Protein backbone atom coordinates (compact mmCIF):
# COMPACT_ATOMS: atom_id res chain seq x y z
CA UNK A 1 0.00 0.00 0.00
CA UNK A 2 1.43 3.37 -1.03
CA UNK A 3 0.58 6.11 1.47
CA UNK A 4 2.15 9.16 3.04
CA UNK A 5 3.36 8.43 6.55
CA UNK A 6 3.78 10.93 9.35
CA UNK A 7 7.43 11.44 10.27
CA UNK A 8 8.24 10.77 13.91
CA UNK A 9 11.24 12.96 14.77
CA UNK A 10 13.14 12.56 18.03
CA UNK A 11 16.43 13.31 19.67
CA UNK A 12 18.76 10.52 20.78
CA UNK A 13 16.77 9.29 23.79
CA UNK A 14 16.50 5.50 23.42
CA UNK A 15 13.07 5.30 25.07
CA UNK A 16 11.58 7.09 22.06
CA UNK A 17 13.08 4.50 19.74
CA UNK A 18 11.59 1.67 21.80
CA UNK A 19 8.17 3.34 21.93
CA UNK A 20 8.20 3.91 18.18
CA UNK A 21 9.13 0.32 17.41
CA UNK A 22 6.38 -0.97 19.72
CA UNK A 23 3.55 1.34 18.65
CA UNK A 24 4.09 3.40 15.50
CA UNK A 25 5.98 1.39 12.87
CA UNK A 26 2.94 0.95 10.60
CA UNK A 27 1.82 4.57 10.65
CA UNK A 28 4.98 6.68 10.68
CA UNK A 29 8.53 7.00 9.43
CA UNK A 30 11.20 7.34 12.08
CA UNK A 31 13.94 9.99 12.10
CA UNK A 32 16.08 9.20 15.15
CA UNK A 33 18.84 11.39 16.54
CA UNK A 34 17.78 14.82 15.28
CA UNK A 35 19.01 17.69 17.47
CA UNK A 36 16.56 20.09 19.13
CA UNK A 37 17.39 22.86 16.62
CA UNK A 38 15.90 20.85 13.75
CA UNK A 39 15.53 23.74 11.29
CA UNK A 40 19.32 23.99 11.15
CA UNK A 41 19.26 20.49 9.64
CA UNK A 42 16.69 21.17 6.93
CA UNK A 43 13.57 20.18 8.86
CA UNK A 44 10.58 22.51 8.89
CA UNK A 45 10.12 22.94 12.65
CA UNK A 46 12.22 22.97 15.80
CA UNK A 47 11.05 20.91 18.72
CA UNK A 48 12.02 23.61 21.23
CA UNK A 49 8.35 24.50 21.97
CA UNK A 50 7.36 20.96 22.89
CA UNK A 51 10.57 20.45 24.87
CA UNK A 52 9.71 23.61 26.83
CA UNK A 53 6.14 22.41 27.37
CA UNK A 54 7.38 19.00 28.55
CA UNK A 55 9.80 20.75 30.90
CA UNK A 56 6.95 22.76 32.44
CA UNK A 57 4.96 19.58 33.03
CA UNK A 58 7.97 17.76 34.49
CA UNK A 59 8.71 20.68 36.83
CA UNK A 60 5.15 20.59 38.15
CA UNK A 61 4.81 16.85 38.69
CA UNK A 62 8.19 16.62 40.44
CA UNK A 63 6.83 19.02 43.06
CA UNK A 64 3.72 16.85 43.27
CA UNK A 65 5.94 13.77 43.81
CA UNK A 66 4.57 12.04 40.72
CA UNK A 67 1.03 10.80 40.16
CA UNK A 68 -0.87 8.23 42.18
CA UNK A 69 -2.66 6.74 39.16
CA UNK A 70 -3.14 7.02 35.42
CA UNK A 71 -6.44 8.84 36.08
CA UNK A 72 -4.80 11.58 38.17
CA UNK A 73 -2.10 12.02 35.52
CA UNK A 74 -4.75 12.30 32.79
CA UNK A 75 -6.77 14.82 34.84
CA UNK A 76 -3.63 16.88 35.47
CA UNK A 77 -2.66 16.90 31.79
CA UNK A 78 -6.21 17.84 30.72
CA UNK A 79 -6.15 20.79 33.12
CA UNK A 80 -2.68 21.82 31.90
CA UNK A 81 -3.87 21.68 28.29
CA UNK A 82 -6.89 23.85 29.09
CA UNK A 83 -4.79 26.40 30.96
CA UNK A 84 -2.18 26.45 28.20
CA UNK A 85 -4.72 26.85 25.39
CA UNK A 86 -7.31 29.14 26.99
CA UNK A 87 -6.06 30.80 30.18
CA UNK A 88 -2.40 31.77 29.97
CA UNK A 89 -1.52 34.20 27.16
CA UNK A 90 1.35 33.00 25.00
CA UNK A 91 4.38 35.23 25.42
CA UNK A 92 5.07 35.88 21.73
CA UNK A 93 1.43 35.81 20.55
CA UNK A 94 0.16 38.22 23.20
CA UNK A 95 -2.98 36.06 23.59
CA UNK A 96 -3.83 32.40 24.10
CA UNK A 97 -3.33 29.70 21.45
CA UNK A 98 -7.11 29.17 21.56
CA UNK A 99 -7.69 32.81 20.62
CA UNK A 100 -5.09 32.48 17.86
CA UNK A 101 -7.13 29.55 16.51
CA UNK A 102 -10.32 31.64 16.57
CA UNK A 103 -11.77 30.22 19.80
CA UNK A 104 -12.83 33.21 21.87
CA UNK A 105 -14.30 32.18 25.22
CA UNK A 106 -14.83 35.84 26.23
CA UNK A 107 -13.26 35.32 29.66
CA UNK A 108 -12.94 38.08 32.26
CA UNK A 109 -9.64 39.34 33.69
CA UNK A 110 -9.33 36.36 36.07
CA UNK A 111 -9.50 33.91 33.18
CA UNK A 112 -9.16 30.68 35.16
CA UNK A 113 -11.86 31.58 37.69
CA UNK A 114 -14.16 32.77 34.91
CA UNK A 115 -13.59 29.53 32.97
CA UNK A 116 -14.37 27.44 36.07
CA UNK A 117 -17.53 29.44 36.80
CA UNK A 118 -18.67 29.21 33.16
CA UNK A 119 -18.18 25.44 33.13
CA UNK A 120 -19.95 25.04 36.49
CA UNK A 121 -23.05 26.92 35.30
CA UNK A 122 -23.26 24.84 32.11
CA UNK A 123 -23.41 21.53 33.97
From TrEMBL:
The lineage of its organism: Archaea, Methanobacteriati, Methanobacteriota, candidate division MSBL1. One of its GO terms (biological process) is DNA integration. Residues 1-105 form the Integrase catalytic domain. InterPro entries: Integrase_cat-core, RNaseH-like_sf. It comes from candidate division MSBL1 archaeon SCGC-AAA259I14. It comes from the Archaea. This is Integrase catalytic domain-containing protein.
Amino acid sequence: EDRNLVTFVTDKLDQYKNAFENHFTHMADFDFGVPIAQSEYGLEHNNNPIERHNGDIKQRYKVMRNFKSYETAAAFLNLRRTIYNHVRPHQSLGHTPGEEAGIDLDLAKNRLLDLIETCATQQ
